[in-house]
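Suppose you are handed a protein chain with no further information: no name, no annotation, nothing but its sequence. What can you learn? This example shows the usual starting point.
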Amino acid sequence: MPARLIQLDRLPASPWKNGGGSTRQLAIHPPGADLDRFDWRISCAQVTRGGPFSAFPGVDRSLALLRGEGLRLALGDDVHELRPCADAVDFAGEAAAGAELPGGPVEDLNVMSRRGAWRHRLWHEHVGGERLLHNDADVLLLLCNGGRLLIDGHPSLQAGQALLLEDEHGALCMTGEAACLHIAQLYRRP
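A reasonable first move is to predict its three-dimensional structure. Written in structure tokens, the prediction is:
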């Protein structure tokens, strides 16, 4: 599959049943899967009100904050303070999870993979200057959350844009201009 440039603000938003926000789906596998049958899913959510998370048994999740003053994520007795352009929090989809929004509405990035079929990792980097990324993942998402990112052989990314690559292994040469970059790698399990 060729590289796909994704403009986040052009994706349709699906309102949550509880009225606490909406989700924009960046990608899902297999294509056309629903929330009960996906192997992996990448989405962004606009969260306007705190509350419990939906349960996804058998799914591993990672959550990073893109915009807002902060999100307080409670996972059982553990509380994580998420900030924009900072590390993601990993947790099991069946875990009791809830969020508080001490500074108001936020936007987050959510990566989920079906345990046993896929695995993933999500992290962020601040890229200023040249950076080489060695990609061994089956699926790679680069999401620019600030600044600008030039990628050899691919479209450049501005804030609010993402690039999805499938089965493109090897080194990617990137040049960042004060870029806040979120990187998700997804791997098929044998």
